[in-house]
Amino acid sequence: MPASTRHHKALAVFVHCLGILAAVPALPALAPDPAAARPRPAVAPEPSSSGSSPSPSQLPGMPAAPPAVPTPTRALPPPPKPPVTVAVAPAPTPAPAYRIHVRNTGGTPVDTTIRQELPAGSAPSIITAGGQAGRIAGNSASEVTWRLKLPANSVTTLNTSLAQAPTGQPVTAPACAFTSDGKRPYDCATATWNAAAPATRKDPASPAWQRTPVLVGVPAAAVLLGGTVGWWLWRRRRRTVASALAAGDGSAGRGPAGDPRHGRGTIYPRPSAPQVAARRRKPPVWLLVTSAVAVLAGVVGVAGWTATRQVTSIDTDSRPTSGAWHGKGVAGPMGVPLRESAFEFTVYRVACAAPGAAARRQCQATVGIRNMTPEYQAWHGELQRVYLPGGRFVTTDEPATQLANLGRDVFAQPLAAGSRVVLPLVFTVDGREPPKQLELRSGVFSPGVRVDVP
């Protein structure tokens, strides 16, 4: 048998086997053994001679290891909306004045405490609804306090006016609604009063022909028009003279009566005078070389002088800059929203316990935080600081902060995008001096904001 025929038959057998394998259906899975599926009765282990209790892995129904706890990747749902909301608006008066609108959105009356912090150096002149002025605990600033019982689904308006305030400058006075004991905030708001701009005296309108644009524009337009007309007349006269000269030259070579048949006519070939080709003058080589050397020396000198100035301007004794931070740090007074890389912080109030026999005391800051990014943002208690006299600082007392927030850990979960919360932060400080500055930031590489405490 030829080799080609043997190869064809072997290939045909191989293809036939492949077809048989493809046509055979898949075998069904083996059925589980019913005896194996039956649960085996639990047998209590015999107590050992040592009398030790069995391990959890030996007890029936107990896993050998605890299940893994998934790491939370989403923010907790925002806290329920408080029944009391606050809105503050400046009044259009010559002196700083504010209107505080307190709204109870619930269906039951609410006992609340309203506090408005006054700027440093100012005192209240008018207080409505029985408010009382006094000093903030552990602070040199003053505040106005109302203790109200808000009816259900009602709006209460409070008015304050300030005296001895700096004239001509914006004045900010935040206000907060607290629970009846004055510890936990419901809501806070702030407003800035600006002095009305003085009315500008308007001069009587002058006639149109006496206004500066008319006095300057009309002569300029006349000069431009006169120049254009003169240039056009000069061009026209020049064209007329050129046409007359051209007509005279054409009739000079003709015979009498201008007959072209008379006269000498054109003589060929025309004699032409030899033209000397103008030689292009080139600068000497020494001038080119000198100029190139001078330009190169100037460039090198300017570069060296610039580098020397930049090097000498470096201060090796200065503190590290914020080059590794994302954004620029912001500082401002209390009650003013301050924006950093991710959050907008507003410090409404800082109150400290009265100094007593104990060396340490707590200071509580009422802070509003708004997430300005389109994603979840986490923040940490170790990054929030209070600066004391002498440059010392302390971070947030997280257990005390959790207790002030009714057991809720405000640093455990990130803030949702676009959300806003008002919460207390507690700092445990030592000494009798009040804090000087509050520093808040959203992350390690955020420059944060700094708020001066009066």
TrEMBL record:
It comes from the Bacteria. Residues 34-56 have a biased composition (Low complexity). The chain crosses the membrane at residues 214-234, 285-305. Residues 34-90, 244-275 are annotated as: Disordered. Keywords: Membrane, Signal, Transmembrane, Transmembrane helix. The keyword Transmembrane applies. Residues 63-83 have a biased composition (Pro residues). This is DUF4352 domain-containing protein. It comes from Micromonospora avicenniae. The lineage of its organism: Bacteria, Bacillati, Actinomycetota, Actinomycetes, Micromonosporales.
